[in-house]
């Protein structure tokens, strides 16, 4: 202990020195005079780099050193959160980053395959003090436990939860390490039961990839997608604790820049919206907005009624569709054709020679007429009627609010499915409550509509020309002042002027403000951004349309998707990985599995396994790594006593150290939350529920991916009956517990739970 304490103290000394240096460089960079835009840009880049460095060094403070490996051929190597160099340039580093190849045996060596190690030592620190060492001798050649650092692992698993997920750098297991360091090409699907560490593995893999492919991923960014904002809050500390801050975390409802879609809808509606044939529905809905009228339309221009026949409109539409594929980009061509035609009709009327000769108008007259027609409000209204400019929000809002539009866009659908899409428009003063299932549809609509940016481009062009003119003026002034100051012509010829070094174009370019946003910020604001890697958690919940969106954001298909088919709760979600992925990525995916449950004690897992088996999916529950300390229990009450019993049981559970959740069918959330709040402080429920403040009352869907020291499941029959995949929901609810589980059932206990005392 003393020897390790001494070494760890030295490591912290190095960390402090590295931090002081980074701090100094940061301060220096901030005070650099930004003499020109280029220097400003360089300064910003340095400030950003040094800020990230300081952040990473700060993050390494807690648990800097996680262990040590003693190699049979060489000396020991210490493993930690970051790499720290030794004093002698040629020697081993003082600390090896856990992600470096040299650290790998720390996680994967076994007595049977010692990988050149004699011993592995887990080091646990509190603050800067070493508090515990766990040694494994690896020279015996006899297989013991299949776990890496079993004592340290069990110690970590027994720790009370805080409501926020923590990293597992100290105790990553061999099967998890293999996935964390797997090649990043193609889609890697990680299937594993509850508590097998899928979320932990996905986040550590993100940190590993950022370390290994730093440059590429710093440029393109890494996206982590989770099911709900609550879940994202739960995992939000893990990557920063690993020193990685540049990652974009988003829920499915937040994948469209500027939109936070949290509207609720029936699972059947979300399922229909998630189907791949919505692509055709949206195509049909766009085509439906390119209208050919049944009868001729007339517009009044300066007192003349000008006529547009259906055939004229059809021809103009054809020409527009040939000019551009996307609706909004083709519209200017349509408008131009309509205006041309109306101008011709107009000219025929006013320029016709009464004696029957040629038209009396010349080209200039025609151009003037054209301007008149184009500027006429009635003409604009007509063009907008026949081919409106559409935003995705307008396309979708209009479609869902009108049963006739829905019917026209869904040939071959049955009326029940059509009725699911129908949503009366909100009152004009209310914003549309978009739901997460709408987000992939809005994104798809963007792809079909295109964005006519000709006006923006014209504005940008005008800006550029203005900057150019200003820059030229600046150079002229510099040149002018030189001529005045210098009288000797010979001398003048030898002095370089600003204009010799830089021309107006370059100067204008430099004056453009540099984009100082981080990669994650730029990516979050840009719908067309493509990421270097995408991590999807609870991937079983994603609908086919959501997969389509994500693949668009990651055309290289470098993705990690972790999930559990036995926990699928949404109707649109996956029941087989191949079926889900192949339409989007073909064969470019592979499957890895995790088999050990680190969260839930064996006694609780046995109950959950019965529920899973009764669900009839054929899936098997993962084996628990540890026995529990408290036996799970069930109690049958009457409906009338339920609220009181829930409150009393929650109070009892909340008396233990750690977090508590009450998991209930959606229909009971309000009543149960009120009953519990009458007895215990800090109760919260719904999407913003926060278990660090007190017990949370949540549905199985909201509980997905989370964990709590104590879990009380209320009305298991209700959970089975209310969910679209009721057994999966009850399985999720039961497997949230890390220590204690109770079940309260109003009426007979479902036979799936018969094992409970
Ligand atoms: N190697 C490990 N060392 C320490 N703790 C671990 C390890 N692996 C997993 N855990 C812990 O086990 C718990 C479950 O992990 P995680 O939430 O990642 O599982 P999951 O597979 O995503 O579960 P679910 O499917 O239920 O969402 C977490 O508390 C996690 O920190």
Task: Describe the protein's topology.
Blueprint: H1 2-31, H2 37-59, E1 65-71, E2 76-80, E3 96-97, H3 104-108, E4 117-126, E5 129-137, H4 150-157, H5 174-180, E6 187-192, H6 198-212, H7 214-220, E7 222-226, H8 229-235, H9 238-241, E8 248-251, H10 267-273, H11 278-288, E9 297-301, E10 304-308, H12 310-323, H13 327-351, H14 363-375, H15 377-386, H16 392-400, H17 403-409, H18 415-421, H19 438-449, H20 454-485, H21 489-494, H22 498-501, H23 504-511, H24 519-525, E11 533-536, H25 544-553, E12 559-563, H26 577-585, E13 589-594, E14 596-597, H27 602-615, E15 623-624, E16 633-637, H28 639-654, E17 660-663, H29 669-677, E18 684-685, E19 696-698, H30 700-703, E20 708-714, H31 716-722, H32 726-734, E21 737-746
Parallel strand pairs: 2-3, 6-12, 6-13, 7-8, 7-11, 11-12, 14-15, 16-21, 17-19, 17-20, 18-19, 20-21
Antiparallel strand pairs: 1-2, 1-4, 4-5, 9-10
Helix pairs in contact: 1-2, 5-6, 6-7, 11-17, 11-19, 12-13, 13-14, 16-19, 19-25, 20-23, 25-26, 27-32, 28-29, 31-32
The structure holds adenosine-5'-triphosphate (ATP).
């Amino acid at each position: 202990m003393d020897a390790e304490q001494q070494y760890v103290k030295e490591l912290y000394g190095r960390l402090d020195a590295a931090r002081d240096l980074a701090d100094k460089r940061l301060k220096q960079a901030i005070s650099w005079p930004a003499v020109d835009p280029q220097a400003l840009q360089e300064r910003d880049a340095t400030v950003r780099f040094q800020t990230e460095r300081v952040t990473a060094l700060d993050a390494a403070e807690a648990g800097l050193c996680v262990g040590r490996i003693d190699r049979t051929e060489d000396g020991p190597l210490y493993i930690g959160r970051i790499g720290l160099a030794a004093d002698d340039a040629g020697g081993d580093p003082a600390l090896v980053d856990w992600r470096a190849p040299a650290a790998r045996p720390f996680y994967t060596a076994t007595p049977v395959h010692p990988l050149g190690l004699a011993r592995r030592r887990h080091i646990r620190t509190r603050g800067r003090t070493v508090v515990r060492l766990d040694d494994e001798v690896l020279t015996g050649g006899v297989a013991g436990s299949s776990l890496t650092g079993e004592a340290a692992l069990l110690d970590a698993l027994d720790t009370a939860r805080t409501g926020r997920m923590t990293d597992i750098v100290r105790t990553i297991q061999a099967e998890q390490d293999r996935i964390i360091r797997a090649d990043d090409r193609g889609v890697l699907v990680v299937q594993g039961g509850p508590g097998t560490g899928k979320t932990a593995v996905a986040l550590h893999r993100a940190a590993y990839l950022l370390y290994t492919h730093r440059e590429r991923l710093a440029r393109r960014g890494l996206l982590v997608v989770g099911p709900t904002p609550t879940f994202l809050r739960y995992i939000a500390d893990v990557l920063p604790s690993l020193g990685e801050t540049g990652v974009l975390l988003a829920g499915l409802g937040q994948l469209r820049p500027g939109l936070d879609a949290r509207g609720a809808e029936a699972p059947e509606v979300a399922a229909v919206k998630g189907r791949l044939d919505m692509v055709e529905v949206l195509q049909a809905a766009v085509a439906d907005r390119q209208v050919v009228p049944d009868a001729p339309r007339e517009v009044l221009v300066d007192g003349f009624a000008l006529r547009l026949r259906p055939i004229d409109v059809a021809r103009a539409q054809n020409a527009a569709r040939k000019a551009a594929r996307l609706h909004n980009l083709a519209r200017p061509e349509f408008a131009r054709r309509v205006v041309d035609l109306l101008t011709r009709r107009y000219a025929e009327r006013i320029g016709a020679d009464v004696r029957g000769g040629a038209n009396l108008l010349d080209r200039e007259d025609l151009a003037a007429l054209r301007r008149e027609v184009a500027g006429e409000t009635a003409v604009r209204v007509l063009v907008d009627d026949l081919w409106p400019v559409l935003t995705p929000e307008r396309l979708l809002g209009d479609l869902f609010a009108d049963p006739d539009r829905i019917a026209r866009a869904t040939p071959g659908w049955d009326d029940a499915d059509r009725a699911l899409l129908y949503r009366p428009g909100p009152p004009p003063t209310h914003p549309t409550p978009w739901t997460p299932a709408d987000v992939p549809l809005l994104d798809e609509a963007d792809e079909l509509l295109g964005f006519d940016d000709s006006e923006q481009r014209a504005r940008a062009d005008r800006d550029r020309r203005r900057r150019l003119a200003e820059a030229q003026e600046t150079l002229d002034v510099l040149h002018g002042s030189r001529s005045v100051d210098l009288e000797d012509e010979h001398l003048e010829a030898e002095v370089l002027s600003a204009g010799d070094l830089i021309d107006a174009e370059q100067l204008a370019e430099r004056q453009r403000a540099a984009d100082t946003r981080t990669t994650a910020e730029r990516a979050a604001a840009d719908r067309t951004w493509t990421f270097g890697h995408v991590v999807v958690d609870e991937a079983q919940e994603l609908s086919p349309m959501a997969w389509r969106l994500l693949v668009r954001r990651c055309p290289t298909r470098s993705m990690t998707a972790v999930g559990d088919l036995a926990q699928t709760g949404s109707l649109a979600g996956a029941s087989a990985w191949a079926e889900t992925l192949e339409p989007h990525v073909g064969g470019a995916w592979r499957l890895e599995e995790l088999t050990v449950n680190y969260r839930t004690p064996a006694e609780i897992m046995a109950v959950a396994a019965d529920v899973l088996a009764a669900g009839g999916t054929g899936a098997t529950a993962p084996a628990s790594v540890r026995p529990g300390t408290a036996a799970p229990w069930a109690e049958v009450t009457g409906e009338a006593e339920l609220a009181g019993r829930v409150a009393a049981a929650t109070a009892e559970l909340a008396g233990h150290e750690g977090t508590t959740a009450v998991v209930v069918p959606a229909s009971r959330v309000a009543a149960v939350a009120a009953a519990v709040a009458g007895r215990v402080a800090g109760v919260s429920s719904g999407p913003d529920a926060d278990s660090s403040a007190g017990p949370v009352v949540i549905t199985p869907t909201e509980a997905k991916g989370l964990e709590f020291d104590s879990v009380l499941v209320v009305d298991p029959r209700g959970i089975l009956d209310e969910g679209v995949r009721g057994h999966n929901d009850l399985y999720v609810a039961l497997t949230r517990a890390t220590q204690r589980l109770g079940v309260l059932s109003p009426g007979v206990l479902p036979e799936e739970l018969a094992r409970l005392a």
